[in-house]
Write a sequence for this structure.
């Protein structure tokens, strides 16, 4: 992975819709590193208004009690909810998270299984968008859920 995209790549991507941008960015072999790389995040789905990513439950992600740190689920939720909003944006429009609410339902062992996070847009307005997210384990049991409010940068 590279440290930066070429000026040609950046120019081409600046003309893409949010959905096209995300699909392209995740498919690039020489894309810059991002937080998902630290979490071994993988893309399962990128559709209009909905995205699904997965992360493993590994030792490096444990808290002092020996189970998955809540920040991993929170980061997964922030990623899928924010990216679900991004899929609905026009070219050249960005967003930022204004508020993130996470509810933890159960502890997660750090045994290498994958958690799946799905974010879905609830409302996409001109200035503000909201989304909801769910994180489930490999048995489809709810681990955490949340909501976000995003400010649209036009």
């Amino acid at each position: 992975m590279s440290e930066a995209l070429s000026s040609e790549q950046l120019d081409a991507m600046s003309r893409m819709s949010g959905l096209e941008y995300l699909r392209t960015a995740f498919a690039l072999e020489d894309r810059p590193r991002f937080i998902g790389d630290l979490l071994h995040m993988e893309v399962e789905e990128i559709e209009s208004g909905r995205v699904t990513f997965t992360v493993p439950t590994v030792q490096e992600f444990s808290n002092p009690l020996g189970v998955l740190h809540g920040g991993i689920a929170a980061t997964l939720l922030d990623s899928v909810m924010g990216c679900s909003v991004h899929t609905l944006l026009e070219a050249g429009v960005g967003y930022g998270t204004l508020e993130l609410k996470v509810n933890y339902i159960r502890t997660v062992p750090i045994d290498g299984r994958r958690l799946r996070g799905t974010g879905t847009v609830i409302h996409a307005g001109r200035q503000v968008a909201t989304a909801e997210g769910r994180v489930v384990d490999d048995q489809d049991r709810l681990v955490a859920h949340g909501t976000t409010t995003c400010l649209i940068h036009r």
Summary: The longest helix spans residues 70-86.
